[in-house]
């Protein structure tokens, strides 16, 4: 069984595609972004202007695991509470911190060590699993990613503005691409999949075909 890495910018649909790909292949889906979001959730819940050292001390006092396709905090699945815009922004900020990345790196590698996993994030193919059997870089235009995020926020019942979403997507792209530690970039051996004009099913078929046959449709 193979180890599959999927990287890409915010709003590209990595989570949905990785989950569907894992189900199609009979693999385990691991959303590494959810692990980062969990730390952001703890930071926001704890409140105050915590130092990274203090935050990780509080995180270490709790139990973070991944079971049945969902991250769990102290034995309970967090669900959509880690998918709000506030958590997204905090996650992007914390993911720049070397100490936070180091804290989660060993956990991510342990989860993938036996293969048969689809792991997605922003530095999976370049840093976390550089020897992954198959690597994809999933992206879409900023405009399309903003539209998808806008509809997602509406579905969560949030009051949102399209122009604000566009600005946030652009700002997050810049932070992720330009951070000093593990910046977002396409691995040299990753297959580029631009989903701007593709349906989720078309993206999925493209990836499955590559995993099984070694070439894109």
UniProtKB/TrEMBL annotation:
Binding site for ATP: 8-16
Source domain of life: Bacteria
Primary enzyme class: transferase
Known catalytic reactions: CMP + ATP = CDP + ADP; dCMP + ATP = dCDP + ADP
The EC number(s) this enzyme carries: 2.7.4.25
Listed Pfam families: Cytidylate_kin
Keywords annotated in UniProt: ATP-binding, Cytoplasm, Kinase, Nucleotide-binding, Transferase
InterPro entries named among the record's database cross-references: Cytidylate_kin, Cytidylate_kinase_dom, P-loop_NTPase
Repressor as UniProt keyword: no
Main location as per UniProt: cytoplasm
GO molecular function, one term: kinase activity
Subcellular location: Cytoplasm
Residues covered by the Cytidylate kinase domain: 4-212
HAMAP family in UniProt: Cytidyl_kinase_type1
Family: Belongs to the cytidylate kinase family. Type 1 subfamily.
Protein name (Swiss-Prot/TrEMBL): Cytidylate kinase
Protein's organism: Aedoeadaptatus acetigenes
Organism lineage: Bacteria, Bacillati, Bacillota, Tissierellia, Tissierellales
Gene that this polypeptide is encoded by: cmk
């Amino acid at each position: 069984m193979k180890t599959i890495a999927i990287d890409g910018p915010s709003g590209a649909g990595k989570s949905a595609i990785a989950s569907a790909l894992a189900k199609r292949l009979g693999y385990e889906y691991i959303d590494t972004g959810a692990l980062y979001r969990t730390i952001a959730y703890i930071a926001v819940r704890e409140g105050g202007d915590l130092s990274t050292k203090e935050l990780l001390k509080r995180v270490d006092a709790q139990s973070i695991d991944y079971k049945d396709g969902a991250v769990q905090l102290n034995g309970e699945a967090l669900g959509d509470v880690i998918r709000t815009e506030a958590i997204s922004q905090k996650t992007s900020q914390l993911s720049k911190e070397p100490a936070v990345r180091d804290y989660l790196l060993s956990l991510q590698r342990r989860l993938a060590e036996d293969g048969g996993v689809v792991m997605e994030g922003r530095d999976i193919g370049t840093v976390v699993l550089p020897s992954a059997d198959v690597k994809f870089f999933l992206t879409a235009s900023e405009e399309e990613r903003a539209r998808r995020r806008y509809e997602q926020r509406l579905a969560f019942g949030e009051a949102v503005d399209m122009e604000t979403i566009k600005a946030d997507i652009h700002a997050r792209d810049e932070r992720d691409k330009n951070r000093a530690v593990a910046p977002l970039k396409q691995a040299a051996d990753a297959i580029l999949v631009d989903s701007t004009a593709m349906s989720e099913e078309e993206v999925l078929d493209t990836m499955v075909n590559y995993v099984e046959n070694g070439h894109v449709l």
